[in-house]
Amino acid sequence: MNLINDPWIPVIHADGQRGKIAPWQLTDTGNSVVELAAPRPDFQGALYQFLIGLLQTSFASEDEDEWLKYWQAPPSTEQLKEVLAPFSGAFEFFNPQGLAFLQDFTVLDDEPKELAALLIDAPGGKTLKDHLDHFVKGGTLAGACASCTASALFTLQTNAPSGGVGHRVGLRGGGPLTSLLLPESAHASLWQKLWLNVLTEEELAPKAHTPSGDIFPWMAATRVSDKTGGATLPDDVHPLQMYWGMPRRIRLEPTQGAGVCDLCGDACTELFSHFRTKNYGVNYEGPWVHPLTPYRFDPKNEQPPLSLKGQQGGLGYRHWLGLMWADPSNGDAAALSIKHFYDSKLRVLDSCDAVKLWSFGYDMDNMKARCWYEQTMPVIAIGEEYRELFFKLVSDLLNSARDVIKELRSQVKSGWFSRPKDVKGDTSMIDQSFWQATEPVFYQQLKILAEQPSNTRTMPASVAATWRKLMFNQALTLFDYWVLEGDAEDMDMKRITSARRFLLINLGKLKSLQHLEQLAATTEEVA
Amino acid sequence: MIKLKKISEEDASCLKRWWAGLDDKRGDRAQLRRAANADDVLLTSAFAHFLQAMPETWGTGSTGKGVVLSISEIALIAAVLARVKSEPQKADVSFAKSLALPKEAGGKAAMSELRFQQLQKSRSPEDFFTRVCRAVNLLGGKANIASLADDIAHWLIEFRTGPASKPEDRLAVRWASDYYAAFKD
């Protein structure tokens, strides 16, 4: 199978029909393609990135104008086919003696491993041996079709968590978050969904006309990272390699004939079941900044930027600022593609082309997948004059919520325990409950803030007042919920009532809330 | 102002008027104070006078807030209120709060924490009646009429139906917040 020439990408057509296409058929006008249809959510995210990477590498626009041209009228399939054709040599999927997509340049002679090990959430060898695969069972994947195997390979290489000695993490670290822009319109084509995330040559790098080992690491001897080799820094290879990172040295084993794919359920003639792997593959280090991933930047500029990861508790509005723009409270900054969206695409897009952000990624505990998270959030189109202030105001709202949560958590613990400082354990559900309870109002206020005229100078009084009241009410409601639900007879009411009183007193002392109070009051006087 | 949960403001002012009138009806007061339990109260003329002084709904067993009380529960309230001699000067001192305040400056709480918890955990209305009377005595007969009546009604209702699901609507929570806010070790 050739990943450029042959149909292997599972898609949904406009009439609801499912099928498989080759990348060049993306823009087929007969029965247009509206969405990918991967059998697993991590594959879905990976296939998006595969296609975005492919377009970025071979078809990036010169500038905004050219980008807009293809946003409005996608290239024909013939045009795409022509552009992609020179790359097909690098995208042969199974080629035991030669070049093969995302597989090591050399033939590996290590022991074959079961294909299940390509899946990030599959239980590892020791887990299986100790019978600890309680929730995600082992032994459910005996074989997979070429299409699913290709998705699995790309998913692993792009998200690779640490995998034991010398089994390297992906270019963005293990289990990075990916942020993609999607049109809000339900009728958007898959082309538009992908094209929104493709940067111009000015923004990233000139497109390639022929494949090379600089961009596709499997086309050259692997830059090994054992004692003889070293780390791979951004200056060592082509910037487009970010879309094609290959931290793991892998070679697929010949198939065992026909069968039914355990991942998508389709019958196929070639079922992959084993692969070989070797450690000390490419070790990506240094200041890599993948254009589709949000990063946390060190304010002192001493540490390389760290990609944001899926984390316990998932994604919520508390990440909105960091995913969408930049959160000064922790140094989180949105993916480059979103920065560029605000800087250039927003200018050229029609105002009715509403866009949303889709963020997803694994929450990894080293090599163990704890959870898969994904979330969509509205992207708010704000004019340039008001933009800085708008995000500053949102940051004020978020900061006050963070302050309140800190107080709430500490006083709930004081209500629960006589020596709260000595108590260890996970109390993140308190934070979660607060974020969840305040989320709808946050988005309401966000909308109000977004609709302010561009000469706005401060937060509207109504927003400040609403938010402050919400903070107080929710803190008390949730305190009662966490501490006082249950049988009052067994509680130390003295301790609890004092914690509740301190909660009120301390909330009153919070600078961020006092600030909101002033804003709410001053503008009222003027009115 | 103290927020009343189980009786209305109108109920409260009727109660106060009736209670203030007891000074001129020494016989009524004596009848009610002599009662060792609520049932003793039911047949007295004093209780009949009490019901006459209250809004009509009380005669059919419901407060101005639509809360259902049995006739012996209403009698219990009347019997306890008759033991109150005066009201605190500040209108915002609830019954539970006054229990935590010392009788003289720098002294101990009028009712100790332990006794306060016992009062709340009384096993029967009879038990509760005895303890709440003792509480009024410990206060030197000084208690907020409306708050006391509201809390007695609240206790009796929770005894019958169990505590409310929302913590802030529970007597235990309300009492503890009032009591411990004023309590000094």
Offer a concise description of the structure.
Chain A has 527 residues and is of the alpha+beta class.
Can you give a write-up of this model?
The complex is a heterodimer of chains A (527) and B (185). With 527 residues, chain A is of the alpha+beta class. Helices cover 36% and strands 12% of the residues of chain A. Chain A contains 13 helices and 15 strands. In chain A, the strands form five sheets. In chain A, strands 11-10-13-12 form a four-stranded antiparallel β-sheet. A three-stranded antiparallel β-sheet of chain A has the order 2-1-3. A three-stranded antiparallel β-sheet of chain A has the order 4-9-6, with no helix packed on it. The mean pLDDT of chain A is 90. Helices cover 58% and strands 0% of the residues of chain B. Chain B contains eleven helices and no strands. Chain B has helices at 9-21, 26-34, 38-42, 45-53, 56-59, 71-81, 95-100, 113-120, 125-138, 145-161, 171-182.
Essential attributes:
heterodimer; A: 527 residues; alpha+beta; 4-stranded antiparallel β-sheet; 3-stranded antiparallel β-sheet; 13 helices; 15 strands; 12% strand; globular; B: 185 residues; mainly alpha; 58% helix; 0% strand
Q: What value does the Rg of chain A take, in angstroms?
A: 26 Å
Quote the distance from N terminus to C terminus of chain A: 70 Å
Radius of gyration of chain B: 15 Å
Mean pLDDT of chain B: 91
Low-confidence stretches of chain A: none
**Low-confidence parts of chain B lasting 5 or more residues at pLDDT below 50?**
none
